[in-house]
Task: structure prediction
Amino acid sequence: MLDIFITSRVRRKIIVIYAKYPDFKTHVRGLAKLIKEDAGNIQRELRRLEKAGFLISEKQSNTKVYYTNKQFPIFKELQSIVLKSQRTTQKKKVSQ
Result:
């Protein structure tokens, strides 16, 4: 369901992770390993999501770490959509 509204597969995976786990902090390579996507594509999407205000980054030694901006104006709504979307997907898998 979420794939209809967020067409970028990588962006969708990133939004799901950060919306579902708002206290999650990671760097590009860690996220690439977690969601099994190319680090270059992830870095591009992280920059876009940071520019939009959904993510915040901070420098920790030589690494840039990203985390959720819980003050993002539509964070609660987006989180609710992600959680509902995942419940719907799980129900479909169970009934098949």
Summary: The chain is about 60% helix and 15% strand. The two ends are 17 Å apart (CA to CA). The beta strands are 25-26, 55-60, 63-68.
